[in-house]
Amino acid sequence: MENKTIVIGCDHAGLSLKQKIVAHLKEHEIEVMDVGTHTAESCNYVDFAHAVCEAVTGGQADLGILVCGTGIGMSMAANKHAGIRAAACENTFSARMTRLHNDANVLCLGERVVGYGLACDMVDLFVGTEFLGGRHQARVDALNALD
Ligand code: RB5
Predict the structure, then answer these.
(1) For 5-145, CATH number?
(2) Among 3, 26, 58, 96, whose CB has the most other CB atoms within 10 angstroms?
(3) Which active-site residues does the annotation give?
(4) pTM above 0.85, yes or no
């Protein structure tokens, strides 16, 4: 997980889990950019998905993490951005496989779906797993061509 910069964002429904993930990443000495939201006031997840995706496509961060109530709205918003391959995951297998096979660059989590321990395990796998390339590269290239 070393030497990666992670950008993270959430809406009001993902605030508590985002704060825990930020603390978890910092404990592991991973550089984190937190683009908000920072309060419990109701907000629109699309705005924070946009901020995270801009940081990833702009090269300020290697990978992004987005947290909302379900992870679904965030993944829909993130996948509207060229160059973003966002995956809403609810288990460790998916979090690992989406790096290995899809070269996902944004992980979307639902605070109302997963607990803190599972979320941190998914984050560790997502951040610590590298894309396999090989036969998966042409598929990812075809995905990117849809942008
Ligand atoms: C907010 O209530 C909720 O709709 C949002 O966090 C997210 O789950 C949408 O997909």
Answers:
(1) 3.40.1400.10
(2) 96
(3) 68, 101
(4) yes
Which stretches of 1-137 are assigned E, i.e. beta strand?
A: 5-10, 31-34, 63-68, 86-88, 106-110
Q: Which two tokens stand for residue 90?
A: 């609810």
Whether residue 1 is predicted with pLDDT greater than 80 in this model: the reply is no
Tracing tokens 């290239």 back to the chain, one arrives at: 141
Choice from 10, 11, 112 to test ligand 1 binding pocket (greatest atom count within 8 A of CB): 11
SS3 55: helix
Centroid of ligand 1 to alpha carbon of 114 (angstroms)? 14
How far does residue 84's CA lie from ligand 1's centre (Å)?
20
